[in-house]
Amino acid sequence: MTLPKFLPFCLTLVLLLTACGRQRPVVRGPAPTPTTGEKPAPLIQPGYTETGYASWYGDPYHGRRAANGEIYDKNKLTAAHLTLPFGSLAKVTNFENNRSVTVRITDRGPFVKGRIIDLSLAAAREIQMIGPGTALVRLEILSLNGKPDSGIFVVQVGAFRDRSRAERLQQQLRGRYGGAFVEDYDSSQGRLYRVRLGPKPSLMEANQLATQLGSDDLPAFVVRLDN
What we know:
By secondary structure, the chain is α+β, with helices and mostly antiparallel strands. The chain has helices at residues 7-19, 121-126, 163-177, 203-214; strands spanning 49-57, 78-80, 89-94, 100-107, 115-120, 134-143, 150-160, 180-187, 190-202, 221-224.
């Protein structure tokens, strides 16, 4: 399969993923330094830190069910993360003003490249990032509710409003990577059809698959499904 076959999908995916990523004005700043393949991945445990952009979400998600089954309350100190086990606690520090907040992971996201955590409205207010919408932050794990490196992981490569487009991409990816499937999702913007690959039994294997997908210029987000 050659790269040009993916190009029509990539254009659609970029627009749709941005729309579904709780988009806010982006703060310009230094991009996080990517991890190279020369070093082993750091062990994810209390004290582990990560640097990247945070965003926040309130309405229209307020009152909707979060990924862990709870009803999302924008006034509580919670957050969405792609892979940390639900119930884990993390400290988020805004580099702009050095203000910090401790949040509990209850949801999945953000599905926007370069962002590492999606804060509730209350948490974003604590570190004064409501106005800018995003901020460069340091995330520090305080406690983990489960094993962060093992479980059930998938790689999401697209979200479509048109199921037929999702199924076409699924078929293209299945031939090359195997294990591609389409999953329905009722978002605040209506029903979406997410294209995912996997499952993989470890975060490392899921990250390896995401790296392969990146070589085809497809947006790839590793997501934990269990816990």
